[in-house]
Specification:
Layout: E1 4-8, H1 14-23, E2 27-31, H2 35-45, E3 48-49, H3 53-57, E4 62-65, H4 70-78, E5 92-95, H5 101-114, E6 117-120, E7 123-124, H6 126-132, E8 135-140, H7 143-153, E9 157-164, H8 168-196, H9 201-208, H10 216-227, H11 236-253, H12 258-272, H13 284-292
Parallel strand pairs: 1-2, 1-4, 2-3, 4-5, 5-6, 8-9
Antiparallel strand pairs: 7-8
Helix pairs in contact: 1-6, 8-10, 8-11, 8-12, 8-13, 11-12
Length: 293
């Protein structure tokens, strides 16, 4: 059944995600802060464009969102031209932004008081996962709203699961980022060790990737790390934003995250080297710089 759907935020993730909804036959309206990107999306997928988040939400059954951070999310939801003032009764707002759990719970309550649902649903899988419709979606919120949204999320996800009440999706994404940070740092150190030991790092990876050391990062990022190419994935600036949420939540819940805090500092070194927009595998760069010195 075709539904009236809006999508707010057409970045590297939102653009293809909205496209999958349109290709599935839904009536999609898009909003992006830069209007030219909305117009380009419309030229590629059809549908309609909105001048404001409020206009995008007006009469929509579902509103999807993928923006930058807590402040961006508040701006497009409860800001002067925000979507929340125009959400329809019983409609569902699905937020794919990676944010703090705190803002997810805050907006859940605002939505509940307004007579509609808010679901926090951060994603993992990167730009390639969004383009190929192979994302993993971690969801928090009311079961009924999530069940209603599930067929739409399925348009671009290979895995989706409710992890608990409001905020649980964001907390699960934090777990995901903790795991990624540790694995990438370990891989960076391993490759630098192999190089320093006089080994062929790619030959080493070809062997150990068949054993217990194998990981998605090794399969997909080791060759590009070896080649010194860092334009294939999630930017360092965004990872530091996410780790900031992780460490802030850890201070609140008492979790001890020494490795995550350390890797966050290593990412600050990458930023200092001009790598703010490099992907997360660029953790190898400071290590190589130390080796040369």
């Amino acid at each position: 059944m075709s539904l009236k759907v809006s999508f707010i935020g057409l970045g590297v993730m939102g653009y293809p995600m909205a496209g999958h909804l349109a290709r599935a036959g839904h009536d999609v309206m898009v909003y992006n802060r830069t209007a030219a990107k909305s117009e380009r999306w419309q030229g590629e997928y059809g549908g309609a464009t909105a001048a404001t988040p409020a206009a995008a939400a007006d009469s929509a059954d579902f509103v999807f969102c993928c923006v930058g951070n807590d402040d961006d999310l508040r701006s497009v939801t409860t800001g002067p031209e925000g979507a929340f003032g125009h959400m329809q009764p019983e409609s569902v707002f699905v937020d794919h932004t990676t944010t703090s759990a705190e803002v997810a719970r805050e907006l859940y309550e605002v939505a509940r008081e307004g007579g509609f649902a808010f679901v926090d649903a951060p994603v993992s899988g990167g730009q390639a996962g969004a383009e190929n419709g192979q994302l993993t979606v971690m969801i928090g919120g009311d079961e009924a709203a999530i069940e209603r949204a599930a067929p739409l999320i399925h348009c671009y996800a290979r895995m989706q699961a409710r992890l608990g009440d409001s905020g649980a999706g964001q907390l699960t994404k934090m777990v995901n980022q903790i795991c990624i940070a540790g694995v990438v740092q370990g891989l960076a150190e391993a490759l630098c060790f192999a190089e320093r030991a006089g080994l062929d790092p790619q030959a080493v990876v070809d062997v150990i990737a068949k054993g217990a050391a194998q990981s998605w990062q090794m399969d997909n990022r080791a060759p590009t790390m070896i080649a010194g190419k860092f334009d294939f994935g999630f930017a360092v600036d965004w990872m530091r934003k996410d780790l900031g949420y992780v460490l802030g939540e850890a201070r609140r819940n008492g979790a001890h995250l020494p490795l995550t805090a350390l890797v966050d500092q290593f990412y600050s070194e990458v930023q200092a080297l001009g790598g703010s927009r490099w992907d997360t595998s660029s953790l190898i760069v400071p290590l190589r710089k130390l080796r040369r010195s």
